[in-house]
Amino acid sequence: MNDTTALEAAAFRRLLQHLNQDRADVQNIDLMILAGFCRNCLADWYREAADEAGVPMDKAQAREAIYGMPFEDWKRLHQRDATPEQLAAFAQAQAAHPKA
Q1: Which helix (H) or strand (E) holds 98?
Q2: pLDDT along the chain (100 residues), means of 10
Q3: 30-38 long-range contacts, Cβ below 8 Å, gap at least 24?
Q4: What are phi and psi of 46, to 5 degrees?
Q5: Sign of the CA dihedral 3, 41, 70, 50?
Q6: Any idea where the SMc04008-like domain is (predicted)?
Q7: How far apart are CA 14 and CA 71, in angstroms?
Q8: Sign of the C-alpha dihedral, residues 52, 30, 81, 74?
Q9: Domains of the chain, first to last
Q10: What is the rounded (10 degree) CA torsion for 54, 45, 15, 63?
């Protein structure tokens, strides 16, 4: 592993710590509204990278790698139902930034 890869890996680990320990209160929908990605997106990108590297990984395994626990446990511990305001803001954000 070169220096750049080691730094990127360390920064990624810190991002996961921040999202899952320091700011577990921040809901995925809020991340999607503000940043256009969430923990589930990170899990999808992680699984895609695994696939590109020839490492077999399913969606549940990728989510567990990102969340640090099975996704169902995370949802039970941290996820709240989206409010009507969050759903409206999400729809507005999606309309303003459609996927290419």
Answers
A1: none
A2: 90 96 95 95 97 97 97 96 95 82
A3: 30/86, 32/90, 32/93, 33/86, 33/89, 33/90, 33/93, 34/93, 36/93, 36/97
A4: -65, -45
A5: negative
A6: 26-91
A7: 19
A8: positive
A9: 3-96 (1.10.3340.10)
A10: -80
